[in-house]
Fold Integrase catalytic domain-containing protein.
Amino acid sequence: MNGAVEAANKNIKKIIEKMTVNYKDWHEMLPFALLACRTSIRTSTGATPYSLVYGMEAVLPIEVEIPSMRILAEAELAEVEWAKQRYEQLNLIDEKRLKALCHGQCYQQRMARAFNTKTENPQTAV
């Protein structure tokens, strides 16, 4: 994946460094750092990793404590209606993944074009 794993690990490490006071308690912050990585939108895909896997956005812990409009709307639904909406969301997950794939390919092309521009004209690069 051309360093994607290393980049992801680097981001997780940066998040943990900002959250910890003492290096010995990094393992206590790991679940929160992973949640942050899984629920943040990636520039390369235009979606969150969580939504690409499960077909819907994650419910954040703060949304349970202070209900958001999405949580309030889902709480008002009957169980049958909720199941129907969830089934429709799962049917659209392949479309969402395909859209993310196309977005990723466009992103790679933009990055390659930017890289090639810098390498073709080294005198103009700073």
Notes: Helices lie at 4-19, 26-39, 49-54, 61-65, 69-75, 79-91, 93-120. The mean pLDDT is 80. The longest helix spans residues 93-120.
